[in-house]
Amino acid sequence: MSFIKEYAQKLVTAEEAVKVVKSHDWVDYGWTTGTPVALDAALAARADELEDVKVRGGILLREPEIFKVDNVAEHFTWNSWHMGGLERKAISKGFAFYSPLKYSELPRYYRENIKHLNVAMFQVAPMDKHGFFNFGPNASHMMAVCETADVIIVEVNENMPRCLGGFEEGIHISRVDYIVEGQNPAIGELGAGAPPTEVDRAVAQLIVEEIPNGACLQLGIGGMPNTVGSMIAESDLKDLGVHTEMYVDAFVDIAKAGKINGLKKNIDKGRQVYAFGAGTKKMYDYLDDNPECMSAPVDYTNSAKTIAQIDNFISINNAVDIDLYGQVNAESAGVKQISGAGGQLDFVQGAYLSKGGKSFICCSSTFTSRDGVKHTRIRPTLAEGSTVTDTRPNTHYVVTEFGKVCLKGMSTWQRAEALISIAHPDFRDELIKEAEKMQIWRRSNK
Q1: Of residues 65, 245, 331, 434, which has the active-site annotation?
Q2: To pair with 345 at 20 to 30 A between CA atoms, which of 11, 48, 220, 251?
Q3: 245 in active site
Q4: Which residues form the Acetyl-CoA hydrolase/transferase C-terminal domain (predicted)?
């Protein structure tokens, strides 16, 4: 049978496709830009017929229709692999929950531990002449999802970029149960946020001066990593490579500035490797059919073993706060979940294993709460309930606008001294007093 005939046989409406979902089922919505739109709306329309449907996904770029139904918690529960703003609101409404797991572990977790995945539904690029539907910028863990699901429904979107890879970047029509042609909505975008502040630029400058020619870059999500990217694009650096969890707009700017060629990479030479991408249309257009870019599963991109093979690996990530012991919290405010573990720890560990590699955790020294009060991000201990994303033995460099320190191998009093030296001056005396109480301050420090 030709692929065209098979396509026609499997083509149904979204309303017909979602009839396979039953009460108490587990349903997977894919990942980020691959989150379904037409199928989601059709499933939401069935809400009154369903109860206790448990849905998995992550990093939502638009609010799903299932979030908007009446008494949503009775019908749907959202289980997120990584939180965003929409999901934080859903948590506060009682129908969404975070699933703590290192992002790199997702493919194995699906294949070995998930016993009940009844239906997978997600957006894909149009079928190619060989019968494959490309996952778009979402190789991530999608092949593992497909291998686990009882029923696979793809929602074709002509606007989905076709992201070339090396393996596990798409699924063949022979493995698909139903095909839905949606309304071809624009791919969900994730902007870079507000323009960089003076603090962002100060932190970025301290990091950029540590990057050698020929380095391989990983940038995390957030304003500071994006500012670092912008400064790299304007720098004299050359022969840079990319191996990252998340592909962001900053990489496009660096590449178009002629800074990236990947020729110094020990593996995947000449390729910009990533597990998923979320950004603006500029980025999606750049990734589309670009042989320089390599979409790959997250257990490859985020593996410390993979990262360690690449010399001069530079990892740059954000933090919510950090304590005087060097414990980094990058995902919660007390018990309130903000994002997720993601791949930060993998890249912190992998960068240190790389010959010449360095990992940088960056943050502003302070933040201002809604009541107008200024707080320090460098704390005596993390707030009660806060998550330790990076344990203290793993933390390498920490950077604020007041400087950068390397914590690797330091004793507790050395760490306290180093971190207090880059804290905001308004909080240093208070931090010293707390360090003394915790017996991690030497009188000679004074």
Answers
A1: 245
A2: 251
A3: yes
A4: 279-435
